[in-house]
Amino acid sequence: MEGVPSWSSMPLTVCAVPHGRDSATAITAAVRATNARLGFDALVMSPGPSCEIVLTTGVPHEAGWMDSAGDARFTERDGKVQCDIRISNVHGELEDLVMRHELGHCFGLAHDDFGASIMRPEQWPTPERTIPPTLTDDDVELLQLTYGPGLR
Length: 152
Prior knowledge:
Blueprint: E1 12-18, H1 23-38, E2 43-46, E3 53-59, E4 70-77, E5 80-88, H2 92-107, H3 137-147
Parallel strand pairs: 1-2, 1-3, 3-5
Antiparallel strand pairs: 4-5
């Protein structure tokens, strides 16, 4: 979890900037799925203007906005650290996987090579939906110890 700010309190606020009719629903679903897997409310949706995470989705690839499907970067705005997530040119299940992957980066998780992990470098829907990618048990334990309810 190097190079990532130590978030001083939970939950982190997520401001959604959806560009597309289904993107707002997908962002809410990704936040709920992440909280459910962690076992506590690490993320809450906020209308803004002050957020720790700004999640922008649905900008068409043709807009020249970015080359990859997703990206999370830390920036400083008004003296506060913010995690900016941008999701482009993916839809449906893949959009959900990329969102949850980038949220993992906002928490400080790095890429790993486990097939069923949401933090593998490339996301793809699983064959026959048998093992949906998710945070691994090790990731969950690390995030619970780092950010869990006892540390609020």
